[in-house]
Amino acid sequence: MDVMTEQANINTEPIIVARNRDLTIRYNSLLQEIAVQKVRIAELRKQISLENHNIQFGLSDNSHRMDLERMLSEALAMLKAMQAEAGMLGGMRRSTDPAARGIHGTGGDGAQIYDNFRARSLQAAQRFRLATDSAIIVNIVAPDRMVFFEKELLMTAQHLNLTDNNLHVVAYIPPDKIHNITYNSLAEIVVNENLSFDAHVSVIGMRTEEIPENLRSYFTKKNTALIAKLDIDYDQRIPFWSVASGLPVTIRIKNLDTWKSDSPSNYLWVTTGAGVNDSSLVDYLNRRRHYSVIERRMEEARADSLKQTRKQHRADSLAALRQSDDSLLKVENERRAAAAESEKVFYIITNVFQSEKNADTKVAELQDMALSRSGKLYRSGKWYVYAARYASMDEAAAELKTISRTQREFRDAWILDSRKPEKK
What we know:
The chain is of the alpha+beta class. It folds into four domains: about 15-105; about 170-255, no CATH class; about 265-340; about 345-424, Sporulation related repeat (Alpha-Beta Plaits). It has helices at about 1-5, 15-55, 65-95, 100, 280-320, 325-340, 355-370, 395-405, and strands spanning about 135-140, 155-160, 170-175, 185-190, 195-210, 225-230, 250-255, 270, 275, 345-355, 375-380, 380-390, 415. Helix 2 (about 15-55) packs antiparallel against helix 3 (about 65-95) and helix 5 (about 280-320) runs antiparallel to helix 6 (about 325-340).
């Protein structure tokens, strides 16, 4: 050993150190090339998705997509080869690392012979603790005691403050349904059959994506959809699990269909940028004028009825002076009944007929069923058969609920407000 020590050149670098340095440079350079290759693969996949969209709409042919798929296959094969080479270089780099082959460089100065230096490598492991008062874990990717790379996904956490979490709902809009949604459209987010909450459209047409396989329809070839973002409305009390990240939901757009509306003329329509529609304004004014005439006639009829009732009451009072107290009470009850009868404007309609004969037959059947307050009403060119009528909507609704629950044939009965104008 003395001869070798005397002949050795202290300025010469050991071969194993130089080789380890070269392997480290090659390894790090290869990792950078792998990262660039992954970016290239991601861009090729985006171009293929966009090309599929253009092919579906007839904007391009299939040749360019085949070239992109060929380039993608070559890039994937190149990435696989580079990763295999990186694994081989990493193993050779670790085997030539002087720090891993002895005490030098391990920080083991003054260590005892029974110390395990390999266990010191665990000191580089990072440990994280999640504050349960500020966030919850919605998805765990890493199994127990699994080794991961530095930038690999371990788990997904969601902040408890939804405002800071920038919570929103992403919707897939098929091309044939794009006319049913616009900015600020009201939407119902259905989580399940027992839970839903309200939202509104904030951004529409963010990008174009391919619909996931579990949401595709087997009866159409259009698997590309536009992406819209919906914001949840404020002042809603909902469970936190219903707004967890990645939860699949169903979206219902609340639009007003004028052609399916029962009475679309009840609205005053306006065109943005042009103002109120002239025909809609004329119909609205005529309807309001007609409704005012009907109200005035009803008030006059009610006043005449009260006037006649009071006149009859005065005439009856002169004759009632010669009768007993029971007769006076009877007359008062009749007057109150007549006044109350004129105020009963809410009819419980059971049937509607074009012929008066059929209406009389139905009224007779109701009388036989112990519905003594039943009758018929001619309105809008039709005969309405009612089971009873009341002065308030609450009383009519309560009676309708009772008869529809006790008798099966009255389940389709409904309430008519005779104060409303008749349909032409």
